[in-house]
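WARN  no MSA supplied for this record, continuing single-sequence
INFO  ligand: NAP
INFO  echoing inputs
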Amino acid sequence: MRHFAVVGSGPAGFYTAEALEKAYGDQARIDILDRFPVPYGLIRFGVAPDHQSLKAVSKRYDKVAESAAVDFVGNVMVGRDISVAELLDLYDAVILATGAPHDRKLGIPGDELAGIIGSAEFVGWYNGHPEFADLDPPLGGEHAAIIGAGNVALDCARILSKTHHEFEGSDIVSHALHALDRSAIRTITILGRRGPHQIAMTPKELGELAHLEAAVPVIEPHDFPPVEADDALEPGLRKSVGLLRGFADLEADKAKRIVFDFFAKPVAFEGDGKVERIVVERTVLDESGAARGTGETYHVPASLVVTAIGYSTSPIPHVPFGGGKFVNESGRIGERLFAVGWARRGPTGTIGTNRPDGYEVADQVAAGMPPGSTGDRSGSEGLKRLLTERGVMPSDYDDWRKIEEAEVGQARPGCPREKFVRVEHWLQAIGR
Ligand code: NAP
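INFO  complex generated
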C-alpha cells in the first residue's frame, strides 16, 4: 500500500488524485487536503458565476472524491496546521496543487490608493471567497478601468456590465448581486499594454461581450494592424482578433460601454486619498514584441481599478519558491515532493490544461514507486492522530455535502445555490 497527499482541491489537485487512483487502483490511498471545508478551489472561487457550464466539471471531481481510494480532508492548512516535512514523513509522496491565489502587483506610483483592487480579490468577492466578503468595491462612480488583456479582465468587465436579470442561473453571491444592482458604473475601460494581436483573450469569452443586455464593447479601428496581418495568427487568436474588429461596427447605443484601449500602459494612479484617474502612457511594440513607452501620456478616469495582470502561488515554509511558483523541474520539487497546476507552471492555460499536468506528475510518482510496491508510511491514520493532538478538526466529503445541501436550500430563485461567504457559516452547516 502507498499513501499520497495532494495539497489543494482545485482542478490540478483533483486531476492528480484521479491519475494516482487510476495508476494504483486499490494499492494506494490518496488524501486531498484543503484549507477550507469546501472543495474545488478555482472552480468555486475563480470561475465566473455566470459560467455554470464550466463549473459543472466539479461533477467529475465528485466521482474522484467518492472513490474508495480517495478522501477529502478539509479545514487543514498546510504550512500552519502541519508542515510539508511532516506530510513527507506520513506519506510516500506529497503533491502541491495550491494554485495561484495572489494578485501580481503593478508596482507603479499610487498603487496603494483605495479603489485599486486585484482581480483575485474582486473575483473572490463576487464568488463568495470568505477573505474578500468585506471587500466592498467602490461602484459609486461612473468610470471603472481594468488593467490587463486576458480572460480574467473579460470576466471582470462582463460582471460589472450585466443586469440583475442576466445573472439568472448564475451562482453570484447575494452581496455582490445587490451591490452591482446599485452600481453607477457606465464606462469600463480595458487597458492593454500591447495591441489587439497580443491579447490573451479567447473567442468564447470575447464573443459574449457583443450580446450583453445593457452594455456594448467599443473599440477604435486605428488600433488594428491591416486585416491581412491576421492571416499569420494562430486560429484561436485570429478568431479573437476578428471578434474585436467586429466590435468596431457595433452601435454604442446601450447604457454601459466596455472600451478597449490598446497600446496603453498604466504608469501611475492619482487621486485624493482614493483613485480618481490612471496616468497612461502610449506604447509601441519593440523588436522583441514588448511594449515600449513613447513618452506620450494621458488620463483615464476611474474610481474603481481592477488589475487583472496574473497571479502568484502562496509560498509554503521550506519549499523552494521563485517567480511566483514553486521551483520545480517538470513538476518535481525534490525527493517525493511535487507540484502540479498553477503552483507548478504559473497561472496559464484552461482548467483542462491541468489534466495532462496531473497525469504527468502521477506518472513520475509511479515511476519512482511502481504500483504493487509497498512502503511503511502511516498516511491518513498518522495525519488524523497528529491533527487531533494539535486540536485541528478536519472535515470530510460528507461534511461538504451538508454544506452544499444547506447552500442549495438557501438559494434565491434562479440561482443554483447561495454560497456561504463566512467560514463560521460553513462550520455551522457541519455542526461545529
Ligand atoms: P493572462 O492571460 O496571463 O493575462 C494577463 C494580462 O495582463 C496580459 O494581457 C498581460 O499583458 C497583462 N499584464 C501583465 N503584466 C502587466 C503589467 N505590468 N502592466 C500591464 N499589463 C500587464 O492572465 P489572466 O487573465 O489572469 O488569466 C489567467 C489564466 O486563466 C489564463 O490562462 C486565462 O486564459 C485563464 N482564464 C480562463 C477563463 C476562461 O476560459 N473562461 C477565464 C478566466 C481566466 P502582456 O501580454 O503584455 O504580458
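The radius of gyration is 23 Å.
INFO  checksum written, moving to next record
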